[in-house]
């Protein structure tokens, strides 16, 4: 029987699509406590969708992994704005309520890390642990650049993909296969992820991600008040995993050496680990998922 299924959860404006990997406690490591493990609530990146967490679910077979398509993405694309980190945070709490979970280990990747951080700040009683993956702390904002220019510099290729049309699924797969960050990681799971991102009909298939949602969320995570207020969460025990390489599979990383050193000085209670030989994508959609799973286990036992 497959671990994976999907449910819908009522939120403002409609239904949020939620992927769910059931956990099998019999697969837990020998000698672990008999107290039920808190589930993982996993939050994807700005142009991604919930299937980016399939790799992590494989690494956590004993634990339930819950991963929504954020509003404006995947099969939640029809949900309306306004968007923003606080809106997504409240949607996550609606997911916990609907599934009957008091608390969960919050795991966020890229923009999802900012959502997880804001969720932990707005709803601390629902957070059983916090793992931020290549996101969460403020990104450097050059004073001469607007939030829109910073977003273009960081995720420009992903933004352009949202405006593209594809004659068939193979054309879309070819775009993903050519992505320099995914060299060596292409396989059936990555292909399923790419296929699931499409909507519409041939020969004009398009990404399910709504560009307006991405623009609004990108601005909010860069200059929004909710993210600024939530930074105090980093003064409590939390884990930040940073990838050695960046969006294209090479330097510069999203969080460079100077930013990491500054975080170590200012946030001494933040457990910060650099993951070698992974990039911004493969830190969750590939070999990096094992290290993310290890961090989940660590924070869940504190």
UniProtKB/TrEMBL annotation:
<protein>
    <recommendedName>
        <fullName>AB hydrolase-1 domain-containing protein</fullName>
    </recommendedName>
</protein>
<dbReference type="InterPro" id="IPR050266">
    <property type="entry name" value="AB_hydrolase_sf"/>
</dbReference>
<dbReference type="InterPro" id="IPR000073">
    <property type="entry name" value="AB_hydrolase_1"/>
</dbReference>
<feature type="domain" description="AB hydrolase-1">
    <location>
        <begin position="38"/>
        <end position="177"/>
    </location>
</feature>
<keyword id="KW-0378">Hydrolase</keyword>
<dbReference type="Pfam" id="PF00561">
    <property type="entry name" value="Abhydrolase_1"/>
</dbReference>
<dbReference type="InterPro" id="IPR029058">
    <property type="entry name" value="AB_hydrolase_fold"/>
</dbReference>
């Amino acid at each position: 029987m497959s671990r994976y299924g999907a449910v819908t959860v009522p939120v403002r404006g409609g239904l949020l699509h939620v992927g769910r990997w059931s956990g099998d406690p019999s697969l837990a490591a020998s000698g672990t406590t008999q107290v039920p493990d808190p589930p993982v609530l996993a939050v994807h990146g700005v142009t991604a969708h919930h299937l980016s967490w399939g790799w992590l679910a494989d690494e956590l077979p004993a634990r339930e992994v819950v991963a929504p398509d954020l509003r404006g993405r995947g099969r939640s694309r029809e949900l309306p704005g306004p968007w923003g980190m606080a809106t997504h945070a409240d949607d996550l709490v609606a997911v916990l309520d609907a599934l009957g979970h008091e608390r969960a280990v919050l795991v966020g990747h890229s923009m999802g890390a900012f959502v997880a951080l804001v969720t932990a700040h707005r709803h601390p009683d629902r957070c059983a642990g916090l793992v931020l993956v290549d996101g969460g702390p403020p990104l450097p904002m050059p004073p001469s650049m607007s939030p829109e220019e910073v977003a273009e510099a960081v995720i420009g290729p992903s933004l352009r993909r949202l405006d593209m049309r594809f004659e068939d699924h193979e054309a879309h797969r070819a775009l993903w296969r050519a992505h320099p960050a995914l060299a060596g990681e292409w396989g059936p799971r990555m292909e399923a992820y790419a296929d699931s991102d499409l909507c519409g009909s041939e020969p004009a298939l398009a990404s399910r991600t709504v560009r307006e949602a991405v623009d609004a969320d990108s601005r909010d995570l860069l200059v929004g008040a909710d993210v600024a207020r939530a930074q105090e969460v980093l003064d409590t025990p939390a884990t930040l995993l940073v990838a050695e390489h960046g969006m294209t599979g090479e330097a510069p990383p999203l969080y460079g050496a100077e930013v990491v050193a500054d975080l170590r000085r200012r946030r001494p209670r933040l457990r910060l680990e650099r993951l070698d030989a992974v990039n911004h994508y493969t830190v969750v959609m590939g070999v990096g998922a094992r290290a993310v799973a290890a961090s989940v286990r660590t924070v869940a036992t504190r």
